Amino acid sequence: MDLPHELIVGVVECVADSKTLASLSTSCRFLHSLAEPLIYHRFLLRSGKEMTKLERILWSRKDRMAMIRDFDFACDGEKRQNFSAMVALLYGASQLRKFNFESPNCNPADFEDEDQWDKTIGRVLNLFSQAISGSPGGHFHPFKHLNTLTLHCNGPSSPFWTIQKNTFAIFLLPSLDNLTLSCVNLNAEIRKFVQNEHLASTPLKALKLIECNVNHLALHAVLSIPKALTHLEIDEACHNLVNFSVNRSSHHNNLFAKHARKTMDALRQQKGSLASLTYGTTIKDRTPTPTVQGGDEVDGAFSEFTTLQTICLRRSSPVFERAVMTLHPPPNLQTLTNTGAAPFTDFTHDEMYDHLIDDPECPLSIPFLRAPSSFIPASLRTLDVIVEDSSRSGYFNREHCRKFIEDTTKHLKTANSIDLRAWAQDSPSRHNFFPPYLHGEAEDPRVRVYNPDEGKWLSRYARPAPPRSGFTVAEERNYYPLPI
After folding, report:
1. 447/389: higher pLDDT
2. How many Å apart are CA 188 and CA 205, to the nearest integer?
3. pTM of the model
4. Which top-rank group of organisms is this from (predicted)?
5. Does residue 179 share a domain with residue 100?
6. Are residues 114 and 238 in the same domain?
7. Mean pLDDT (whole number) for 9-32
8. What CA–CA distance (Å, rounded) separates 340 from 320?
9. Contact at 8 Å (CB) between 55 and 84?
10. Mean pLDDT confidence for 49-62
11. Cβ(286)–Cβ(333) under 8 Å?
């Protein structure tokens, strides 16, 4: 070829279609050397049959297994799985950079008993401790080079699984910078697993805890490990508590309402690097601010978070709002977001909360800015309020609600140069189980309901396209180029 090698390399790296890559790999030795690693770069596997076939093809070619960079085991609950093949593939993928795992029973809710769980999901989770200690078999160290990890699992006879001594190694992976865990119990015993050499030792940048049961001591232990965390999401268990008969523990969740100072002590470990914070409360965290015991302890709690630019609150937590906005908010805060069924409702009328959203005269207030002695930093530019409205009607059709939003939008823009944006989104309660799945039910997009520039409201909300049930055939073929 007369083209420069650098140009050819750039073109080949942009090819996503597996058939095209296969054709290129048979053209000449140079293109073969470029295309073959991309053919084995990533795999999406849903069934034991696919795992068995891939293991059989690759096990005799360790060089090809080492080419794998992205494994996605989104197990189909209606198909038989082969966890032995799955573990073997993970052992062989010694250069794996990204791993997504969705257990087969977490979505159908047909949870295994403890013995069966240990033989299946437990086998996969046990690999993480080997990435720290080294595997007994020799040079294979699963997950040693892993950058991105997502685990959507269930536990034995439960929608929740628990971080224990062997799985605590997940937080210690030496190359991991992006971690997402869902449906996990973070218990106080985690602090026993943290050694002095673990403190501020990992490169983790982004941590998402979705639909999790979180304890104060566990949160403190987990946040003591990263050197400089930039993005943190703590989403307490909510939807699974509604959809399943799960006993709620008094030792988990409602972190700010139960003990704001302990929660802030945990967060302050990352005050020098945290840029984005999302906090989602569990069911009915609606303690009115005036009655919070020791509420003044959180005033100005985020004042030392100089890098914090984005804060999101899901559902309702007056204490969290107070911690963010009272007296001394984060000095470089740019965006605030509040999501809930009735986020404009004045939470000081909590004793009537269940009736307020149907009351045409219910008092309204501005999320975050309603905190006592709130102070608006000069850096704040956007306040997004997202109403989870499964009917796509009621809340924004109330005249007094519309007038409140119109007046508040105008005032904030004029006085503080802040854009108040009102959005609607389907309520997660319409789903059988909580979103998101790795390749299942997608969250509905937000719809902006008021355009202040034109002074117009949407007369009716446009229904978005139905949530996808997974990849299209073409997408899955590209993502899963099973070798022949």
Report:
1. 447
2. 23
3. 0.86
4. Eukaryota
5. yes
6. yes
7. 56
8. 14
9. no
10. 86
11. no
